[in-house]
Design a protein that fits this description.
By secondary structure, the protein is mostly helical. It contains 14 helices and six strands. The longest helix is centred in the C-terminal third of the chain and has 29 residues. It starts with 23 loop residues before the first helix and ends in a 16-residue tail after the last helix.
Length: 327
């Protein structure tokens, strides 16, 4: 029997994702309701710190997971390894399978092209995140597989994320126990891939500022570096504090890159200066940021709990649509 949908805004369990599973309006409304709860601003500050700790847990992530395109392609590699073709179980990842995955996506979701994907894969190999497969498959396919370093890195990243949301949305067990459960991390990332493949949905949909930020090199860590100081003032305006040098040191970028990010935020009317390093979030941008954070919390919590319960032995529904066979 198929597993039950875990929340009202999903029509099916994430393992059985298909077109029409996600109610975007329902997710948007749930995210807005969560973001409006008292104390959510403090939850965002806590999340920003925990997310950064997870990101820093394996230093190689700083150079490899620089933006949305690299993040999604690393997830795709874990997904391809987790969802191997039953006809060729020894084959995990091949460049052609990664490219076919990318071709199934709406290109507007991930900026770049074939050459960029090849560059990301080469960088991941150089960083010891991917390696030639130890299996006996056809060497002409140039099969790759995740390394233990990639698995540790993504586990650390998930751990930081779950620690960030757990005070607001309780988990069935501790984040460390969840991440340590065999099969949990790749099952979770499978659930994060399927909405892209079946519905061309990512949580920045309808959020143009966040789409720009997450596609920019180190854009999301820079935003979180500001949000860790998020504070509503007595007059109702929302303020953050950010020194380019401090942002650069926290995120692992140049001071000029941090300065350019802040300048772009000013030019796009996302921020308004208060003092030399104090900024007000403009109301429209603040609303978009809080919708994003509400989605971040709900999306990860829902998929993580569903993946953990499958990993610890709930009856599994029929597997997701098969991945394309390697060529």
């Amino acid at each position: 029997m198929p597993l039950a949908a875990p929340v009202p805004w999903l029509a099916h369990h994430p393992r059985d994702w298909r077109a029409g599973t996600l109610d975007v309006a329902g997710l948007t409304a749930a995210a807005a309701e969560l973001a409006a709860q008292p104390g959510f601003e403090g939850a965002v500050r806590h999340f920003a710190d925990c997310w950064q700790q997870g990101y820093d847990a394996t230093p190689v992530l700083r150079s490899v997971m620089r933006n949305n395109a690299r993040y999604v392609l690393l997830l795709a590699c874990l997904w391809l390894d987790h969802q191997r073709d039953p006809a060729q179980p020894e084959v995990s990842i091949t460049p052609s399978r990664v490219l076919e995955f990318y071709e199934r996506l709406d290109r507007r979701l991930i900026e770049g092209g074939v050459s960029r994907i090849k560059t990301i894969l080469a960088h991941a190999r150089a960083a010891d995140l991917l390696r030639p497969s130890a299996g006996l498959g056809d060497a002409r396919l140039r099969p790759l597989e995740p390394t233990p370093l990639l698995r540790r890195a993504m586990g650390g990243y998930v751990l930081g994320f779950l620690r960030g949301i757990s005070p607001t949305l309780p988990l069935p067990v501790t984040p460390a126990f969840m991440v340590g459960t065999p099969g949990f991390v790749p099952e979770l990332f499978t659930y994060r891939m399927l909405p892209l493949l079946h519905e061309r949905f990512s949580i920045n949909q309808g959020l143009p500022a966040l789409t720009w930020i997450t596609n920019r090199e180190k854009g999301y860590p820079m935003l979180l570096a500001l949000l860790r100081t998020l504070q509503t003032q007595p007059d109702g305006r929302v303020q953050v504090y950010g020194v380019p040098q401090a942002i650069a040191e926290r995120v692992g970028i140049s001071r000029g890159t941090a300065r350019n990010f802040l300048q772009a935020a000013l030019e796009n009317a996302w921020l308004a200066p208060v003092g030399e390093h104090d900024w007000h979030l403009q109301p429209a941008f603040h609303a978009e940021v809080m919708q994003w954070m509400g989605r971040e919390f709900l999306w990860m919590h829902t998929l993580a709990v569903a993946a953990w319960r499958v990993s610890v032995g709930e009856p599994k529904a029929s597997p997701s649509a098969p991945t394309p066979a390697p060529r």
